[in-house]
Amino acid sequence: MSAVLIVEDEPGLRQGLVSAVETLGFTAIPAASLAEARHALEGAPVDCILLDIRLRDGDGLSLLRELRAGTHRDVPVIMATAYGDSERTIGAMRDGAFDYLTKPFDLPALLATVQRAVKQRALAQALNPPAAQPAARGGLVGTSTAMLGIWKLIGRAAAADAPVMITGETGTGKELVARAIHDYSSRGPESFVAVNLAALPPSLLESELFGHEKGAFTGAAQRRPGRLEAAGAGTLFLDEIGDLDAALQTKLLRVLAGGSYERVGGDEQLPNRARIVSATNKPVRPGEPGCTLREDLYYRLAVIEIEVPPLRARKSDIPLLVAHALAGTPARAVSEEGMAHLLAYRWPGNVRELIHVIHRAAVLAGGEIIDVVNLPEAVRDERERHVAEDGPVVLRDAVAALEKRLIERALERAKGNRSEAARQLGIGRPQLYAKMEEYGIGDRHDGST
Length: 449
Hints:
Blueprint: E1 3-7, H1 11-22, E2 27-31, H2 34-43, E3 48-52, E4 54-55, E5 58-59, H3 60-69, E6 77-81, H4 86-94, E7 99-102, H5 107-126, H6 145-159, E8 164-167, H7 174-184, E9 192-196, H8 202-210, H9 227-231, E10 235-239, H10 246-258, E11 260-261, E12 270-271, E13 275-280, H11 295-301, E14 304-307, H12 318-326, E15 333-334, H13 336-344, H14 350-365, E16 369-370, H15 377-390, H16 392-413, H17 418-425, H18 429-439
Parallel strand pairs: 1-2, 1-3, 3-6, 6-7, 8-13, 8-14, 9-10, 10-13, 15-16
Antiparallel strand pairs: 4-5, 11-12
Helix pairs in contact: 6-7, 10-11, 12-14, 13-15, 16-17, 16-18, 17-18
């Protein structure tokens, strides 16, 4: 059975909270002070803490910080106070509080928050996040069939020394592919220099790429090497090649064809030693509608062409990508229902959008588990739309399947001990027995009660 520690110094309110929490089927552990709370935490495990901020022997926020720095950092803490000022609220949430409630309590809302906190604790104990696959050099992640094809192409491109063009939608990781090609190639020890061709006007971009001589234009007070020169014998990555100005396309074609170039305002022929890798999310193949790239330049740049698939074409990689995105965040995993929403969403922003969503949700979750409520509305709506289209039975079956799986996992972790399994799940033993009977669980999970 789940245990809730209630730290409140007003006797009548403390007893009322104990009685209310016990109606949920949880064990309520009362404490009248910070000292009693610390003693209680030493004696028995708890699954949630309801902590008053102003106590006779100190500030509840100090205990919150102790918990987050010690062995109870994963226990959700609900802060309670009669003073709902912004500074305390922000301070409590910043220091890791699960939620912040003001007195007098809305009892149904309070109990719902306690239940949600206990559920999160149970999920944190029952769910195992996917094993984080080591990222390839360059940071790419994935084991899907689509990504296996990309790995093969990267290997072939790394073994060759020809120009490479990488195509694909925005946010698919085209620069990561370019970096992986560089890192795995014989040029890996040399420089990798990236230029976003869409970020600068043509007048500045020419100087940025090829450098300039002193006095080449107003403000050119001294000679400056360009990115091509800075790349040396390494890799020059030209991002957004589809946005390159027509005049600069001609000059780049001369570099690729002749192997040399001049700085702006100069006539010295400089040898190009860098490998050119380019990328675009625009049409560049000859004959494609909207193509602005010269045909002869395309054939020079795309000796090897790699098309990076959108995330919607490699959804089996999402759990691995989520595991990598969680690294360094306060969260440890995504609930199964939350993962179902991530898998249902179409991801128009691709991997970049997924990483942004996970980082944002990890901040908002206030604990180790990211749940559906922490995801953006667009991600939640997509899953709910699919459920509505498939009929009401889908949601009921999905919830039942999730409950059954969590119960089986909890029983396995508890080695068949049903009391311990009920505690991990945050429910009472009678409710656990009823669920086990409903789902036909029991024969292979026999153990002490």
